[in-house]
Automatic annotation (TrEMBL):
Protein name from the UniProt record: Glutamate dehydrogenase
InterPro entries according to UniProt: Aminoacid_DH-like_N_sf, Glu/Leu/Phe/Val/Trp_DH, Glu/Leu/Phe/Val/Trp_DH_C, Glu/Leu/Phe/Val/Trp_DH_dimer, Glu/Leu/Phe/Val_DH_AS, Glu_DH, Glu_Leu_Phe_Val_DH, NAD(P)-bd_dom_sf
Entry similarity comment: Belongs to the Glu/Leu/Phe/Val dehydrogenases family.
Chain sites annotated for binding substrate: K78, Q99, K102, G153, S366
Source species of the chain: Thermopolyspora flexuosa
GO BP of this protein: glutamate biosynthetic process
GO CC annotation terms, alphabetical: cytosol
Ranges of residues in domain Glutamate/phenylalanine/leucine/valine/L-tryptophan dehydrogenase C-terminal: 191-432
Pfam families registered for this protein in UniProt: ELFV_dehydrog, ELFV_dehydrog_N
Binding site for NAD(+): T198, N229
CDD domains found in the cross-reference section: NAD_bind_2_Glu_DH
Amino acid sequence: LRRNPGETEFHQAVREVLESIGPVLGKHPEYAESKVIERICEPERQIIFRVPWEDDNGEVHINRGFRVEFNSALGPYKGGLRFHPSVYLGIVKFLGFEQIFKNSLTGLPIGGAKGGADFDPKGKSEREIMRFCQSFMTELYRHLGEHTDVPAGDTGVGQREIGFLFGQYKRITNRYESGVITGKGLVYGGAQVRTEATGYGCAFFVEEMLRARGTSFDGKRVVVSGAGNVAIYTIEKVQQLGGRVVACSDSSGYVVDEKGIDLDLLKQVKEVERARIEVYAKRRGGDAIFIPGRSVWEVPCEVAMPSATQNEITGRDAERLVRNGCIAVGEGANMPTTPEGIRIFQEAGVAFGPGKAANAGGVATSALEMQQNASRDSWSFEFSEQRLRDIMRDIHSRCLATAEEYGMPGNYVAGANIDGFKRVADAMLALGLI
Ligand code: NDP
């Protein structure tokens, strides 16, 4: 705490992992002897930089850019970029720290990193977004490389922004280095299913949790928070698996649509028009209602899939969800449930899939994009989706088996933290004091 003052989200993320791995340290004294914990909590490198850019009226703005290269024991640094006004070092470090264990859990050769800027894309023109991305990459490019550090998207950074970032990287370096960034458009080296991967992967993970309890999505009432990349493709896959998604949200409020969310309309409003969620309710007519300024977690559901932001499910929300009959939670977002919320879910016997495991499908498919770029190949949608499904099933079964092995059956949080930690820790020991 003294070393990293004020970084509350980072403290929260570290505490959760350290609380889980006590039993591992008991079995493996070599981790403590070589100070693996202390090393893993300290990023290998942190970069903070100025991002100056000009708006359409010629006014100059200065934002702050970040890249925290946390751990490269398993492979090149890998993790998304977030553009949101709330971004500061504590947020980037929490995301980067979680990314180490998530990437390890996928079983693929990728280290952990995260980055972004306190830039607010809302209300900006496309030309302003492009100028910002170009200025951001003009500093960041020197730290990147397909064998060094490979960013991707996150909140506020979708395919459009990845295109601008990659274009500027290519221009500055004079290298068509496809594997330097993932989440690219299909016409210039992107991979099938990457856009859908985090949401689809989360739905597959929850499908496995439900199956382990002898049930399925079929006919279940589901609430998804957010209406961005993760939320939209979570809704799409849940609907394909037979679930009925009755509500989603953005930072202005939520919509309830008892007939089930109309996905084509949602995509039109959010992906094409980039409008507020209220517009969805207006267009849908009598069937949907917009509730401004309130939490979507007041809508009763059997499955909750938080896909917006950190700490969006508080202890109070968790209590209400349990009271309303929620039996499973799959975290599409990173750390969307507070520690108190997690405790309430676990004590109530709710199947709780933490983000590190449940949303790992995005980065796993990014690693598949890197594989395709390295071999100058491109795989079909069906093949890529099957790979994603297999990876999510494997993560699910390893979380369960590890939790069982360490005497905490059904505890996916412990399973994910222990399994993710061990692989990284073993690699760090093998590589010497680095
Ligand atoms: P997007 O920017 O595409 O969408 C974010 C959505 O969440 C928007 O609807 C946004 O509403 C809403 N939201 C953001 N902040 C808040 C807030 N403070 N309160 C209420 N709603 C909010 O981001 P993504 O879908 O890519 O990411 C969502 C989450 O998933 C993040 O936690 C991210 O780290 C995580 N994640 C994303 C991955 C990916 O592949 N994209 C991979 C793994 C995890 P509004 O537009 O009003 O701000």
